Structures are given as structure tokens and as C-alpha cells.
Amino acid sequence: MEVIICRDAAEMGQIAARHIVSVLRASARPVLGVATGSTPLSTYAALAELQAAGRADLSGISAFALDEYVGLPADDERSYAATIRHTVTEQLGLDPDHVHVPDGTATDLVAGCQAYEDAIAAAGGVDVQILGIGANGHIGFNEPTSSLSSRTRIKTLAPRTRADNQRFFAADETVPTHCLTQGLGTIMDARHLVLLASGTAKAEALAAAVEGPVSAMCPASVLQFHRHALVLADEDAASALKLSDYYRHVRDNQPQGMRIDTL
Ligand code: GLP
Fold first, then answer.
1. For the chain, which domains are there?
2. Which parts of 9-76 are beta strand (E)?
3. Which member of 19, 67, 117, 234 is catalytic?
4. Cα-flanking dihedrals φ and ψ of residue 26, to 5°?
5. Model's pTM, two decimal places?
6. 192 tagged catalytic
7. Which residue has the higher pLDDT, 61 or 258?
8. Among 2-16, 42-56, 143-157, 242-256, which is the least confidently predicted range?
9. Is the distance from the beta carbon of residue 36 to the nearest atom of ligand 1 less than 6 Å?
10. What do you get for the CA distance between the two ends of the chain, in Å?
């Protein structure tokens, strides 16, 4: 696992975007795994800037989202389908037919989850997956005690996650109780992972994920088993890391030609 401590959200987005573009460029059928939440927004903005500058062309890629609320249709602005449409599909000029989000309104949710897994496989798998992290260590919507080898399925949201996400709903609206999420096993099948963390609210979860034991109690800790996991954190999110001096030392002493942040 490579950990880079970034100055701010803008630098985090730029490093993530350059890494993502270099991975996608090397793929014959580029597939990007996308995430909702506030943290990846600077990455999407940086990807859009690279495109505008003619340094990347994402028009032909496919994308798969991590998760969706059960019961919210794609035309509901609070759905993750709508969030991905605005922050990814429209901003990056992707073909909407090639951007996939689990369908939280399917009559048969179990069959829908399997169909989602099949669609990812049919696209050739995810080349690089963007991940945020929940304050309880979740990735996607894999709450603590999720199986480390889980696949796309229905999950019950943790009360803390629902409280954290209340900000996307009006005060008198309740956050859905259930979701569909790619499993930890599904996420781990992506060939590259980029986990983004910002703010002090994520500091404990990030430290547990990067430096704690691998445990279903901190689902993001499963990344320790991934061969190509890049972790980008701002100073606040990195504040509970014990080895931050080491991560800075590694960043300053990358072998020539291997610097992720200068790709
Ligand atoms: C939600 C999403 C996650 C996301 C997390 C953190 O729970 N399901 O994919 O990583 O929120 O979001 P934020 O980046 O806004 O803190």
C-alpha cells in the first residue's frame, strides 16, 4: 500500500487523476470504478481539467458505481445514480449508456446484484476503482463486519452512516435504511484501487485501515491485501497515522520514473 499525504483537496485530486489516467491509458477496454461522496469531487474536477487540456480522453471509457440506496429511482436527485450523472457522466462527458449504477428499484434486488456483477465481468473488470472511506471504516456501503470476500448485495446501513448522509436529504426526509453495494471481494477484484480521505472525521478510520489489523471491523483494512492500492490523504485525515514521517520519506525518495505524483 502506498500512502501519499497531500497538501489539500486540490493536490489530492490532481495526483489521483494523473494516476487514474495513466492506468486507463494502458487498458484496451478502460473501465473506471467511481464513488459518490464529497471526497472524490476534486478528483473528478482534476480529470475534467486533464481532458480540457487535451492530456486525457475519457470519452470511450465505461464506469461502474459502487453503491445505491434501495428505493430511490435514478431520477430522484438524492439517488447515487443522479449524483454520478452530475459529478461524473456530465462533467467528464461519458456516454450515459456506459455508466452503470446498481438499480435500487429493481423488483428482484438479488437478481439485480448478480446482474451487476455479471456486467462488471462482461466489461472486462474494473481497471481502477476510486474509493472514499466512511467514518466507521466502510468502503462503498460495506459496513463493519461485512465479509471481506463479499459480492454485490443488499446491506442494512449503520445508524452512523445514515446520520452522516442525512446532509444530502431534507431535515424531514429519512435516509433509506438499505442499500445495494459492491462487496469487498468485488472491490478487491479491481486491478488498481485509489482510496481518498479528507478531514479529521476520517482520521481514526484511515489509521485503522492503513496501520491497524486487517479486520471486518474496519472494512477498508482489506486494502492491505491489494497489490496496487494507493491511499491519498490530506493532513487532517492523516493526523492519526503513526508512520506519517515514513510516508513523506517514501514520497520524497521514489526511484526515478516511479513517482506516482509526477506521472
Ligand atoms: C457514503 C458512500 C461511500 C463514501 C462515503 C464517504 O457512505 N457510500 O462510498 O466513501 O459516503 O463520503 P464522503 O466522501 O462524503 O465523506
1. 2-246 (3.40.50.1360)
2. 31-34, 62-65, 67-69
3. 67
4. -85, 0
5. 0.96
6. no
7. 61
8. 242-256
9. yes
10. 18
